[in-house]
Each structure stands twice: as C-alpha cells, then as structure tokens.
Design goal:
This protein is an all-alpha fold and 268 residues long. 86% of the residues lie in helices and 0% in strands. The protein contains 13 helices and no strands.
Length: 268
C-alpha cells in the first residue's frame, strides 16, 4: 500500500505524528542551544558546569528506561500522561523561578539542574508513551484497511525526531536574534577557534571569553531562561492536551482491536 495513503488514511497516526512532533520540539529546546548558553552566561564559561547540568538532567532517562515497564503495568496510559505533564511542569517552574530570583551561585546552579532533571523525567516519560502510541496504530491501521504497513508506521518516529531537531535549531537561532546574543556567541566561537589553532593560549582564551560574558545583560540571560522553560512547557502542555482529546487507542480499545483482528483471522 502507498505510504502516503497509509499515513493520511490513518487518523490516529496523523494525530500522533502532530502530537509527537510538538512534544519533541519542546523537549529538544533546552539542549539545542538555549541551555548551554544560559549556563555559560549565568555561571561562567566552564565546560564542566554544562556537562554536569546535562548529565543530571539525563539521569531521569536512565531511571525511566529501567522502571517504565513496571510503571506502565500499574498506571493507565492517560493517567501517566497527566503525571508526566505535572512532573515536567514542576521542573520547568523550578528552573524559571530560581533563575529569575536567586543570585548566580552554585546553589542556584544545582537547583536549576534538579529542575531540569524533573522536566526531563516528565518529557522522556511522554516520549515513551507517545512512541508506544505510534506503534499501536499498526493494529488500528490493519483493522481499518486490512494491511499493517508496520514498516511505514514505525519509520515515522525517527523521521519526526529528526524534523523536530531541525526545528529546535531554528528556534535557538531565532532566540539568539531576539535576545541579541548572536554576536556574543560568534565571538566566543572565534576565540575557541583561535585557541584550537594555537593563535592564543588557553589562559588568554578564558580571559577574553570572560570579558565577552561580562557584556551579557540580565535581560538577555532571562530571555534565554524563558526560551528554555516557558516555551518547552507550553509545547509539552499543547501536545498532552491534543493527546488526551484526539488519541482514542487506550489500553482497553487496543485490546478490543487485537481481539477483533484475531477473530477475523480465525474466520478466514
């Protein structure tokens, strides 16, 4: 069966493609550019700080990779969406409030990092739920059309993930333009290039980058903070609302479809 017909003729797959794309765009904004530059501008150009920030945030994915199967057996998928939504929202709120209120100390850094861990926990949980939801449209497609088209349907996830990554790069670029830090980030990149080419020493690079960072105004740092908290949270909430409204393949409905398909095959 033609791939475009499979996608267009499967309303649940179409909705999941839209929902998954929105969620993945929001999920990728922090690490696509806004996050690292906010950490550098707020706490100093120390590679170890951003590595720590991202590592703490990604710890949540390891937790869910281990425990998601057990959790999914205890909680209905729609309930899990609500819980992940709440957890991620709390994480983004912690990042935003601490970023706006607290002074630039290591305490603030750790609070923001923990907030990101909670946000990433919720977002990764939603990713797993939506990935499974896409796969479940295979049986729905078979019920409607008589053809599974499993290869076409499962290929949607990596395609949408790559599309989301491209969009997050665009969002990061636009954010830099809005908060007027593009020239500053370019100067830092130039200094990194000069250091790699041994045109300046590591000490000179660090001194000059510190001078560049000192030019960053508070409103510019806050602009980056807003882009890595409010925007991802808004996109996540939108994706969850669309999921709850338009995705009908609950566990019970999916089981009904599988039983119907088994009955059809038995009667053939």
């Amino acid at each position: 069966m033609d791939g475009s017909y499979t996608i267009g003729g499967n309303d649940q797959l179409v909705w999941m493609a839209v929902i998954f794309l929105i969620q993945q765009i929001g999920n990728g904004i922090v690490l696509a550019g806004a996050g690292p530059n906010y950490i550098y501008f707020e706490f100093g150009y120390e590679g170890g700080l951003y590595s720590t920030f991202s590592t703490v945030g990604m710890m949540a994915t390891g937790f869910l990779m281990i425990f998601y199967p057990a959790i999914s057996k205890k909680l209905h998928r729609q309930r899990m969406v609500e819980l992940m939504w709440i957890v991620a929202s709390i994480g983004y709120a912690i990042m935003l409030v601490s970023g706006l209120v607290l002074p630039s100390t290591m305490l603030k850094f750790w609070i923001i990092s923990v907030g990101f861990m909670l946000a990433n926990l919720g977002q990764y949980g939603l990713y797993l739920i939506m990935m499974i939801s896409i796969i479940n449209t295979v049986e729905y497609n078979e019920l409607k059309t008589g053809s599974r088209d499993e290869a076409i349907i499962t290929s949607m996830r990596p395609f949408l993930t790559k599309m989301a990554s491209s969009v997050t790069v665009i969002i990061a670029t636009v954010t830099y333009m809005i908060v007027n830090v593009t020239a500053l980030t370019n100067r830092i990149s130039d200094l990194e290039t000069q250091a790699n080419q041994e045109l300046i020493t590591a000490a000179e690079k660090s001194e000059q980058i510190a001078a560049v960072i000192s030019e960053v105004a508070p409103w510019q740092k806050n602009g980056l903070l807003l882009s890595m908290t409010v925007l991802p949270c808004a996109l996540m909430i939108l994706s969850c609302m669309l999921y709850k409204k338009h995705y009908i393949l609950s566990e019970e409905k999916y089981d009904e479809i599988c039983k119907e398909l088994e009955t059809r095959k038995a009667n053939q």
